[in-house]
Records
---
Amino acid sequence: MTPGTVKPLEDIRVLSVTVFLAGPFLSMTLARFGAEVIKVEAPGIGDPIRNVGPYAGPKGISPDRQTEDDLSIRFLKRSEGVKSVTLNLKEPEGRRMFLELAKQSDVVIENLSPGSMRRMGLGYEDVAAVNPGIIYCSIAGYGQTGPYKDLPAHDHQIQAMSGIMDMNGPADGPPTRIGFFVGDLVTPLYAAYSILGALRVKEKTGQGQYLDASMIDTLATLMFMEPVEHVVAAGRTPRAGNDSRDDITGLYRLTDGDVIITVGGEDRWKKLCNALGADDLLNHPDYATNAGRQAHVATLRREVQSRLGQYTCAEGIARLEAGGIPVARVRTLPEVMDDAHFRERGTLKPMLRYGSDEPVDPGIVSGFPIVFSGGELPKLEGGAPLGQHTEQVLGDLLGLDRQAVAALKKGGVV
């Protein structure tokens, strides 16, 4: 281990057959921990996200490719530290070579349509036959089993089918999609620590196993951390927009912006009234109990709005903070992008092209949100051009020389 660098997975090799977002994000997450991640892509085509603009290249950012060196910004955001190898898995020789690579790997991950890898003879059973210790993880919208498994699914459909859209948005408005690809991004995190758990089991038993990750199941486990079933049983809408369903926690408009506060509970109710000088609310018999405040929550929100609304954000925040009320101003994305907090902690960092230390402008990639006291996670290379590592990987792992790789390329195998 390099001094000052933390590489928990530096002895782990991952074979990745992944496209779009969920699988690539899992690949990048494992690479961040020091794993060698080899992304297997179709020759001449690659991950379809490579062909979705905008693109970054030597001439800057453009909606369309300006040079052969341009790479999709979406691909750059999802592929740091991942090697690119081209291999035609529809050809017998490509499949044979994949299994040879799998023999020398610890983990296989894929997020193709359910059953795709199995139909090519590259499913878990096929890989386990040549490498019984393999950890094989599949990610799909609905998982590999169940009545919905064959339905096409991107994050939009998963948010709709999971019910999470029914929870999101104002109570008197339509169901609303969460503004980023939550199913595509949280499922790989579940998958990552499941892979770590499976590797731990393998250390003890020598046995690998199959992991079936489902985006819709992931969202269901998150949603029902809240007592939503009681809301539904009572015949209430689960949508509450920016507010709490049961108390005056929520969003308030001040003279120069919005703030969001958290109340909840008797103690904070009293603190809020004191902070706003609202003895009339504190002593009002209708609001003396939690049940009473729930019954009159709409009226109370209007009362709080009328009192808070006279202040600027700075004034209102100072008053509430002094009173012990959790509060934050609602910031814009440009404000967040410019916040030094994220740069100092490595949460957000400049986007780099492969082989370059010059940042793409504007361009941000997400770092890792946990800080290790033992050192920094490894600095990763930017997303690689298609097939960048084919010759190196096939040479190192399969013993093929340059001429052999060239012949395979001419034959459409790599």
---
Amino acid sequence: MLRRFAKMGLTVSVAALTGVLTMMSVSAESGNSTSAGGLGTVGYLIFMVLLFAVMYFILIRPQKKKDKEAKAMQNNLQVGDEIVTIGGIVGMVVQVQEDTVVIETTGNRNKIRLKNWAIQENVTMSENAKREQEAKLAAAKAKKDTKKKDKEETDKPEDDKGMLKE
């Protein structure tokens, strides 16, 4: 969904920029400082600032956040973590150094030394986070079910003990 917003934002930004440049060229050809739309130089500056703000919040800021999370994941690797590299190699971390990691792949215990930036995903961390999230969901569901049962019990009328109601 984020990619869809990013593509949409980029498309809108390009279209707006094209429109502004077209209006500026038409304005320059006509010889006056205002265009047919009545926007002056200040209007163009405001429009360009707004365009940059939209591009920042749709494209740049989410990418910086994603890069920061990836950097944190790469710096928090531990021996025994299962990782996936950018090239698709899956392996178990055997040794962690300052800027490199040694992983062990396949049953033949082949060892490969990689740079930290080449690590795309920490499968162990992802699985642990997924388990924690599932546990939280299960606890919330159990709590909701107990509240629902308690409410049903309090809403039940007292037992009539066989007496007829009129």
---
Amino acid sequence: MKRTPALSILVAPLLLGATGCNASSSITTSSAPHVHEWGDWERDEEGHWRYCLTCGKDEYGEHEGGLCDVCACFRVLALGFLEGGDGAHGDFAKECNDFFPRIGKKEGFLYDFSTDFGLVNEDNLANYDALMFLNNYPYSNEQRQAFQNYMENGGGWIGFHVSAFTTESSSWDWYFNTFLGSGNFRTNTWNPTPELLKAESLTHPALAHVPETFMSSPNEWYGWEKDLRENEDIDILLSLDDSTFPVGDRKGEIWYNESGEDYYPVAWANRNYNMVYMNMGHNLMPYNDFAKTSKTFSKEHMNQFVLDALKAVARRD
């Protein structure tokens, strides 16, 4: 039985026995009766284990690679569509469903995906440390209220790209105007292009391991109705660097910054909630043949930013 871990992570302590993964307990008592005081879970590809800090006894459970509910350090639910909407938006969700399980296995978190926003309810959200909206958001009043309650009670959230898109922000005032703070969609660039991004809030944990500027993967960039710099609740994390203009490459849908005063935030947090929104999530995909020519998760620093943002909203370091 292997006892040298490939990865050591923290989970909430259990008072009695392991659960999940067909875990079996090898607990025995010391010469003096006591309640076991368990150390942190440790894991490798074969199983997970922990030791009593008082008597040194252990409990162990096996699993076939990957992670399980016992040894994962947090759990995230991603929601969005795969088919039926904008092709590039659906393709981004498919890319997430490859990227996050792979990186989750390495980093120690579980990733669940569903197209069903009916899972945004109080009972189900209690099972997750964080939510991700990949390319959509809840539409029913019940789902919207459950999400608001989740966030107001310390839940974690990451939203990508079109999860902030609206031209009728009054339809969900709390989400678009209070929570995101951006209001209505105002403008966009085309075609999707890679751009130089500038880190704005170097104290935020999402930016702990990236340089001051770094290149993004190709993306369709959005501009917003409201100036987020004027909102004291908003902590802007990334913006388009001045040197990267013009942005876009199709006539009529190119952003210029000839005056040097235009400003486009592309990732931010709301200090009143445990959240990060990032505009990335639209690969370069011509709509005549849907031939994908880029990947969002193709840049090392971008990937690190996404991972650190996820850890931050899940309250893990």
